[in-house]
Amino acid sequence: MHGKNPIRPPVLDDGQNLEVKSIFATLQGEGIYVGVPSVFVRLGGCNLACSFCDTEFEDAAVMPLADILAQVDRLSRNDDGVCVRKLVVITGGEPLRQNIAQFCEKLLANGFMVQIETNGTLYRNLPQRIDIICSPKNTGQGYMPIRGDLLEKISALKFIISASENNYRNIGEVGQSKYNIPVFVQPMDEGSAAKNAANTELALALAMQYGYRLSLQTHKILKIE
After folding, report:
1. Cβ–Cβ contacts within 10 Å for residue 9, how many?
2. Residues 190-208: tens digit of each pLDDT
3. Angle between the 101-109 and 65-75 helix axes, to the nearest 10 degrees?
4. d(C-alpha 17, C-alpha 98), whole Å
């Protein structure tokens, strides 16, 4: 974490096995589906090493697709065996580093909604009925435009905001205007109460000034995974 994760290249295979860090039931804590009961599938490895990354995803194990689907189905059900967690969030790491196309197709065929959280630097040919949430990263010389083949499929952009990191004090134009993509601003979690409070204040000010949507990490507020 925090810039120390090794950079992992994209995986070129048939997608019958995936590197999985964890699969768990929770509430979606951020963005367009905040508060929705969900099953998260956290995949291992990322093609970036962001200094502010707050997620551990390197300790992953290879799992057959059938086993992943079985776990998702089990975790989607309540104590009465009823499927109540109908949103599957595929996150990481960087989920598009792996060939998740078949995984997504099977989830959709089984009646799930699918949301992917990506940094926007990689592309996979995925089914249409998927919500892609992109969190652009700043190279130090500004935000790089999101690749065009991905941009037109993005449901929302989530910009991380920091009052102390110059690269993340505001959002950038990465192509959202062309497609009228909703923009969320989310305070960076820097592991410091004082910094986090300043980040929240700045994100709120940006939302009020420019009409962005404020995203808070409610799962951390609720102290759930």
Report:
1. 9
2. 999 999 999 999 999 999 9
3. 40
4. 9
Q: Do residues 96 and 115 touch, judged by C-beta distance below 8 A?
A: no
pLDDT in tens, 57-99: 888 999 999 999 999 999 999 999 999 999 999 999 999 999 9
Hey, where are the domains in the chain? 17-221
pTM: 0.93
Phi-psi group of 169: left, alpha or beta (phi > 0 → left; psi -120 to 50 → alpha; rest → beta): alpha
pLDDT tens digits, 1-18: 555 788 999 999 999 999
Collapsing DSSP to helix, strand or coil, 39 comes out as strand
To which CATH superfamily is domain 17-221 assigned? Aldolase class I (3.20.20.70)
CA distance 169 to 163: 6
CA–CA distance, 156 with 176 (Å, rounded to integer):
9
CA distances from 74 to 78, 97, 103, 156, 178 (A): 9, 26, 16, 29, 41
